[in-house]
Specification:
The complex is a heterodimer of chains A (114) and B (117).
Chain A (H helix, E strand, L loop, with lengths): L3 E2 L4 E5 L4 E7 L6 E7 L6 E7 L4 E4 L2 E6 L4 E6 L8 E8 L9 E2 L3 E6 L1
Parallel strand pairs in A: 2-11
Antiparallel strand pairs in A: 1-3, 3-8, 4-5, 4-9, 6-7, 7-8, 9-10, 9-11
Chain B lengths: L4 E3 L2 E4 L5 E6 L6 E7 L5 E8 L2 E5 L7 E4 L6 E5 L8 E8 L11 E2 L3 E5 L1
Parallel strand pairs in B: 2-11
Antiparallel strand pairs in B: 1-3, 3-8, 4-5, 4-9, 5-6, 7-8, 9-10, 9-11
Classes of the chains: A mainly beta (114), B mainly beta (117).
Chain lengths: 114, 117
């Protein structure tokens, strides 16, 4: 039951260029979407989130776009830096008060080439 | 910056043994979670906990699993009789209140790597 899918297991991008990571979901009850970054032997680190009532949220070099009709979201990183090399997880939540269970995608390994 | 602390970082146990994974959530947080990641797979929800009781649990969280907040600061995950397929990274997480996802998600610990042999 893959409610959140990241179809690209890996992505390589030149330093300074734009990195675009994609995520698709199937559950129309999801109302929050998040991106987490994960280094080996560490826990996921929150990057950016978006509510289902918005279509864009920006924080510095990171922008998340949400297309509800297509059930698709993407994370843009501009400009990409070597420190951005990590596994990126898309996650979604259908919140009911207090319980913010996250459903994660399988992750995309981003490699920034110097 | 406040952290979620997990101990031990790595636990090796024999199949059939009981293990307890420990977590110290951020002090003013009220909601607690356990997730796990089997090597090479996605991070999976196990259980959420609020007000000293389970809010929701996944189908993975069967009778072999239990959670407890024994002393107001620690949050533990117990696996009663470990199986080989329980080998995974286990992540604890906490959040200050519901509806926090819009602003800062919630905070994960660094994980405990459980190896069942």
């Amino acid at each position: 039951d893959q409610q959140v899918k990241q179809n690209s297991p890996s992505l390589s991008v030149q330093e300074g260029r734009i990195s675009i990571l994609n995520c698709d979901y199937t559950n129309s009850m999801f109302d929050y979407f998040l991106w987490y970054k994960k280094y080996p032997a560490e826990g996921p680190t929150f990057l950016i989130s978006i509510s289902s009532i918005k279509d864009k949220n920006e924080d510095g070099r990171f922008t998340v776009f949400l297309n509800k009709s297509a059930k698709h979201l993407s994370l843009h990183i501009v400009p990409s830096q070597p420190g951005d090399s990590a596994v990126y997880f898309c996650a979604a939540s259908a919140t009911n008060f207090g319980n913010e269970k996250l459903t994660f995608g399988t992750g995309t390994r981003l490699t920034i080439i110097p | 910056e406040p952290e979620v602390t997990q101990t031990p970082s790595h636990q090796v146990t024999q199949m059939g043994q009981e293990v307890i994974l420990r977590c110290v959530p951020i002090s003013n947080h009220l909601y607690f979670y356990w997730y796990r990641q089997i090597l090479g797979q996605k991070v999976e929800f196990l259980v959420s906990f609020y007000n000293n009781e389970i809010s929701e649990k996944s189908e993975i969280f069967d009778d072999q699993f239990s959670v407890e907040r024994p002393d107001g600061s620690n949050f533990t995950l117990k696996i009663r009789s470990t199986k080989l397929e329980d080998s995974a990274m286990y992540f604890c997480a906490s959040s200050v209140l519901g509806q926090s996802l819009a602003n800062y998600g919630y905070t994960f610990g660094s994980g405990t790597r459980l190896t069942v042999v």
